[in-house]
Amino acid sequence: MQTREELEKRVADLEHQVSAMRVRQGMWTVRRRSAETIAGLPLYDIAFGPDPAKGEIRGHARGILAIGDIATGVIAIGGLARGVLAFGGLAAGLVTLGGLSAGLVAVGGLALGGVAMGGGAIGGVAIGGAAAGSYACGGAAVGEHAVSGLGADPEALRFFREHGLPCPAPGPRRRW
Fold first, then answer.
1. Looking at per-residue confidence, does 24 or 118 come out higher?
2. How many other C-beta atoms lie within 10 A of the C-beta of residue 53?
3. Strand 151-152's sheet: what is its strand order?
4. Higher pLDDT, 107 or 170
5. Cα separation, 114 vs 122, whole angstroms
6. Can you spell out the DSSP letters for 77-144?
7. C-beta atoms surrounding 102 within 10 Å
8. CB distance 85 to 67 below 8 Å
């Protein structure tokens, strides 16, 4: 039977070997955190890659400014970003920018929100290639007041113009 010290040494050796294998496979880890805090949150936190000590497969950054594989903060930037201002592949918060973006103001490939702008946009005010909302503008737009390739509701045109939102009135179709 092995002693506790022998087992601890063996575990440490195995962890070192696993780390070396990850480096060879192109995986890397970054962890940086501010010593300064506001309301218990670090000023900035950066976390990329796995952290076996914490049992994390992906880095999870939490701070006022959070940057990582997963980021949660006032300003969050990451693959999955959650925050007041969120920027990432999947972004959720008040003001968001991402591939899939959900927020009060959302901009992205697919945007869901109060004001949504994107390739696909769904919201109270929606602007995009395909848009659905109370006020909608897009190539294919549906809603109570819509501007689309098929026509324009005068109320929708007035609304978009009045609020300075981009929504061109459909013109005559060109035949090539």
1. 118
2. 8
3. 30-33, 44-48, 60-142, 145-148, 151-152
4. 107
5. 8
6. EEEEEEEEEEEEEEEEEEEEEEEEEEEEEEEEEEEEEEEEEEEEEEEEEEEEEEEEEEEEEEEEEESS
7. 21
8. no
Tokens in use for 50? 């796995």
Tokens of 63: 């701070």
pLDDT band at 124 (very low <50, low <70, confident <90, very high): very high
Q: Are 132 and 143 in contact (CB under 8 A)?
A: yes
Asked whether the beta carbons of 146 and 137 are under 8 A apart, the reply is yes
> DSSP letter string over 17-72?
HHHHHHHHTT---EEEE-S-EETTEESEEEEES-BTTTTBSS-EEEEEEEEEEEEE
Residue with tokens 């395909």: 130
Domain spans in the chain, listed from the N-terminal domain onward: 19-162
